Amino acid sequence: MTTVIKSEQLKSTNYAYYEKREQILKKQLAILFPVTGAICLLCAFTYYVADVSSVFTIAALTGAVLSYLLSLMNLRNGNPYILIWIFIGFSTAVCCYGFYSDNTHMVSNTIALTIPLLCFFSLRYKHALSYSLAFGLIYIFLSIGEISSKEQQLTEVLQNISSYTMIFIMAHLLARHRNEAISKVRKTATTDFLTGLKNRHGIENIYQNEAARCQRYLRDFSMLLLDIDNLKNINDRYGLQAGDKVLMMVSNLLREKIRQTDHIARLSSEEFCLLLPNTSITQAEEMATRLKDDIASCSLELENGQTVTVTISIGLTPVEYQEFSIDYSKADSALQRAKNWGRNQVVVSQ
Questions:
Q1: Which of 175, 215, 302, 322 has the most CB atoms within 10 Å of its CB?
Q2: pLDDT of 54 over the 90 cut
Q3: DSSP type of residue 4
Q4: 230 Cβ contact partners less than 8 Å away, ≥ 6 residues apart
Q5: Does the pLDDT value for residue 6 go beyond 50?
Q6: Active site annotation includes 270
Q7: What would the pLDDT profile of 89-117 be if each residue is shown by its tens digit?
Q8: Statement: residue 350 has pLDDT above 60
Q9: Catalytic residue among 270, 271, 320, 323, which?
Q10: Whole-number pLDDT of residue 153
Q11: Which long-range contacts link 182-191 to residues 24+ away (Cβ below 8 Å)?
Q12: H-run or E-run covering 346
């Protein structure tokens, strides 16, 4: 009996694929809002028992209701950026109101310290930086106002401002570190680890953009598949490290020879793909012939003094603006004919 496995059940184990920022934020808010709601309920109970002004009890209850309402909207696929902006705006309003009340400002100072954390935790870097700086100036202004009203000592105000500055700097540095890590992960997802060229996923995205542009402006567009001849024999004879050096040599030569508007990727062990926008199939064939001759004229000297020369086979096709896999199949068919006819040749798809 044949076991049938559905393709949607198979997922890549490449952890370089990073979730979209919006999806991550939704998961984070699913934890933040309920926890904040519980804290607000606890504060409301504390205010009620301590016989503090009913305004603070109502404010805490309002915060709890708002947190759970935002949590519900987040579960129902509300825009997470709008939800977090509402939450940050409410927190800012409560903090500022606390400075004008006659009670202790401890809660307001605590909320103030969470503002930069919330911003850098959930907003885009530029928005988080701008809002945190703007709120910091307001916080300093309000704190200085407490000195003039004799409600707080200078040392206490300076301590609060210093605490906010430290939290701001820490949140800022952590956000930068996170963004740099995410950027490296995303680059890894679309880049070949050995040559530094784009991989298949990276070149597919470029293909879609270039194909749409060339089709819109009625420009020619060609695809070139290049395969290093007998790379397996080189690996067997000289070792895998020599094979890696050959791949790096070929990739460097291709970088030097192609135009700035062209795009190159390593698709598999010895196969490379070049996208040539604004290039007719005749021009692409001329370019492919030059690449073939240039690579054949180069040799790689190994550490043990041995030299390795390589040749390449190339398949060409004009892009028909459908999808990457269709044009790839046509170019690959031409490439296979080039290899079957003796290698070190350029063949155009029929």
A1: 175
A2: no
A3: P
A4: 310, 343
A5: no
A6: yes
A7: 999 988 888 777 655 566 778 888 889 99
A8: yes
A9: 270
A10: 66
A11: 182/18, 185/15, 185/16, 185/18, 186/16, 186/18, 188/16, 189/14, 189/16, 189/17, 189/18
A12: strand 346-348
